[in-house]
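@channel sequence for tomorrow's demo:
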Amino acid sequence: MRTNDRILDFDLDLAVEKPARTLAARLAGLNGWLGSLRVAVRNRLAANSLADLDERLLNDLGLSQGEVRDVLRRHGYADDPSLQLTRLARRRAERSLRGHKAE
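structure tokens (generated this afternoon):
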């Protein structure tokens, strides 16, 4: 019968360098970032067009001109304000359904 000694070798070197990202991985990351930026700019332009609507039309959407201007002022030019505007409109719709008077 034969006995084999097994030795566990733990590599505890904490200074291990991470492998460099490939060009394809970098390009994929850049493509994703550019796609997000494109969507954010498109939504920013759409939100800017909301600021041109009159109060009656904005009220139908559940927004006011003051809310739209405030959200546009708080967000940068490359930021997407659509999520904040959607939340405001939904909050107003929920209050309306509960019977609360619109602000």
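heads up for whoever presents: Residues 25-97 form one domain.
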